[in-house]
Specification:
- The structure is a single chain.
- With 633 residues, this protein is an alpha+beta fold.
- It has 4 domains: 27-134, Gnk2 domain, C-X8-C-X2-C motif (Killer Toxin P4, Chain A, 2-Layer Sandwich); 159-257, Killer Toxin P4, Chain A (2-Layer Sandwich), CATH 3.30.430; 279-380, 2-Layer Sandwich (Phosphorylase Kinase, domain 1), CATH 3.30.200; 387-629, Transferase(Phosphotransferase) domain 1 (Transferase(Phosphotransferase), domain 1).
- 32% of the residues lie in helices and 17% in strands.
- Strand 7 and strand 8 form a beta hairpin.
- The longest helix is centred in the middle third of the chain and has 21 residues, at 402-422.
Length: 633
């Protein structure tokens, strides 16, 4: 009786839902341009408890689609915790409640019947709304993945000027949406004149459950994708689960509901190359940032006279201490070695420039101290330890689940993209590795030890150096062997780091005695053999996204190809990580690839020795250093 009753109830629920979904309004147009992402690794069976709970959830979402906020989330569960379903919808902020309900109703019907039947995790976007559900709670959490983007097929008549107007407009809308009151629509829209005839219409929106900080971060992450996805096009759209942006040359939203025009903040003046800056300008720069300068007495007191109990670690160019400023703020203090050979004014000038680099995935430089022989950098203090502490310590690996690892990979890529492309200075890190990635309280990655190498007078040009700094095993072959560095050197290091995060083993300590392989050779053999999932850290085998893991391995192998020109640019890497629809080329064999001694079918190649530099004019320095190329942008 119990089994029969359960089946009848499930059937009744299904019939009620189908009947409810069929009652779509005929007075409004159907939602346009449906795009779905379905997780193929998590499915359910017909008439299961999950199926019943999903039907109840979709019915609840469609019935609540008339609420003024245009956003609603809920959950349905049973005694079986594995059958809980979490769902939400977000309608475009300018829509009426009737249009919103039409879109949500259509989305609920098409999700289960057309796009993602029997998929536990589903994300469905239309022009008018988004529908999302899954078996894990995502409420009040900022998610940038999975994502999608679309571009207007028409090119702008003056692409450079149009791009600039788009960037200024959507960036100016971010604080308007992010700072909306709790529970209100996190929405901002604006119409701008382009050339007297053509107009620009822009909209940014977050789910109202996000904090102001998370909304700001989400929208800025979406804006970072515009240059690669939609450069020079008359319109573009970037979709994240927690936020979205869109701009067009035609009015795609209701103009009478748009927010009052806002004035974007003025762009900062372009920086100049150190050495070509007039002395008067240097003085203005220093005076404008006097708040960055700390006295030695303040730093000495903050660190309890650089007490050994406050010591956090030692890098290649100095020791790091934890400190507490008089206002209670905790900081990390890096006391540079006295052999740097740089004058106080030059030191100040560089700190002033680098302190202006601010990105959520970079450790911030808060200030400096320069008194006599003392040169000290003050960084923000990051609560958790570095990534290697969680990745390679067997006792902590279980705390680093796959969603955390995927978020970390995305964050590192965005940080490097900023250094290479979006910052006021063009910076090549040259020592990207797990120990140089710190994790904050929410396990967000922050790249450390960047941007200060010119302090140490490294003899370099834009393309090569006579002194190799970095960590063996992460250095691109053209850099390790010939001193040639570029943005593609960092791409190589990122590829090694991505593979380490997926596999859970350190590149420099990995050696497969059975096959005589290093980590890259090990990854390549499994990829060529069609067994990429066997590379995954054994601690993650019970819970992971198959598509995300394979994508990360694929990107990692693209990054470590021997030919630098074949390695993807950082803009492309960020897109590949965030877009399920982007096709990727097949990787070629990694640099320093060592064919298996026990697998005669694997192709062979000539290997470059990584034991010594190819030229005796190069010196290898394994340390914590990073390199800055100070280019005007």
């Amino acid at each position: 009786m119990i089994t029969m009753l359960s089946i009848n109830l499930n059937l009744l629920t299904t019939l009620v839902l189908i009947g409810f979904l069929s009652l779509s309004r005929t007075s409004e147009a159907a939602p346009a341009n449906g795009y779905s992402i379905c997780d193929n690794t998590t499915t359910f069976t017909q008439n299961s408890t999950y199926h019943s709970n999903l039907n109840l959830l979709l019915s609840s979402l469609t019935s609540n689609a008339t609420i003024d906020a245009g956003y609603y989330y809920t959950t349905t569960s049973s005694q079986d915790s594995n059958s809980a379903v979490y769902g939400a919808f977000l309608c475009r902020g300018d829509l009426t409640s009737g249009t919103c309900q039409d879109c949500v109703t259509t989305a609920a019907r098409e999700a289960v019947q057309k796009y993602c039947p029997f998929r536990k995790v589903t994300l469905l976007w239309y022009d008018e709304c988004m529908l999302r559900y899954g078996n894990v709670s995502f409420f009040r959490k900022m998610n940038e993945s999975p994502s999608a983007y679309f571009q207007n097929p028409n090119n702008a008549t003056e692409p450079n000027r149009f791009n600039q107007l788009v960037a200024e407009t959507v960036t100016g809308l971010v604080p308007v949406a992010a700072n909306a009151q709790t529970g209100a629509k996190k929405l901002a829209m604006k119409q701008e004149n382009f050339d007297g005839v053509e107009q620009l219409y822009s909209l940014v929106q977050c789910t109202p459950d996000l904090s102001s900080t998370d909304c700001d971060q989400c929208l800025r992450g979406a804006i970072e994708l515009i240059p690669e996805c939609c450069d020079g096009r008359k319109g573009g759209r970037v979709l994240f689960p927690s936020c979205n942006i869109r701009y067009e040359s035609f009015p795609f939203y209701n103009l009478d509901t748009s927010t009052p025009p806002t004035t974007p903040p003025p762009l900062p003046p372009p920086p100049q190359l150190p050495g070509s800056v007039p002395r008067s300008q240097v003085g203005k720069e220093i005076n404008a940032v006097e708040s960055l300068q700390f006295s030695f007495g303040t730093i000495e007191a903050a660190t309890n006279k650089f007490s050994v109990h406050n010591k956090l670690g030692k890098g290649g160019f100095g020791e790091v201490y934890k400190g507490t400023l008089p206002d209670g703020q905790q900081v990390a203090v890096k006391r540079l070695s006295r052999g740097s050979g740089q004058g106080g004014e030059e030191f100040k000038n560089e700190v002033v420039l680098v302190a202006k680099l601010q990105h959520r995935n970079l450790v911030r430089i808060l200030g400096f101290c320069s008194e006599g022989a003392e040169k000290i950098l003050i960084y923000e203090f990051v609560q958790n330890k570095s990534l290697d502490h969680f990745l390679y310590d067997s006792g902590n690996q279980v705390n680093l689940d796959w969603p955390s690892r995927y978020k970390i990979i995305n964050g590192i890529a965005r940080g490097i993209l900023y250094l290479h492309h979006d910052s006021r200075l063009k910076i090549i890190h040259r020592d990207l590795k797990a120990s140089n990635v710190l994790l904050d309280g929410e396990m967000n990655p922050k790249i450390a030890d960047f941007g200060m190498a010119r302090i140490f007078r490294v003899d370099q040009t834009q393309g090569n150096t006579r002194r190799i700094v970095g960590t063996y095993g992460y250095m691109a072959p053209e850099y390790a062997m010939h001193g040639q560095f570029s943005v593609k050197s960092d791409v190589y290091s990122l590829g090694v780091l991505i593979l380490e995060i997926v596999i859970g083993k350190k590149n420099t300590n990995f050696y497969n005695s059975d096959n005589g392989e290093d980590l890259l050779s090990h990854a390549w053999r499994h990829w060529r053999g069609g067994m990429p999932l066997e590379l995954l850290d054994v601690n993650l085998r019970d819970s992971y996204s198959r598509s995300e893991v394979i994508r990360c391995i694929h990107i990692g192998l693209l990054c470590v190809q021997e030919d630098p020109d074949k390695r993807p640019k950082m803009q492309k890497i960020v897109l590949m990580l965030s877009s399920y629809s982007l096709s990727m080329p097949s990787p070629e064999r990694p640099a320093f690839f060592m064919p298996s001694r026990t697998d005669p079918n694997m192709p062979s190649m000539t290997c470059s020795s990584s034991d010594q530099p190819a030229s005796n004019s190069l010196s290898l320095s394994v340390n914590e250093a990073s390199i800055t190329e100070l280019y005007p942008r």
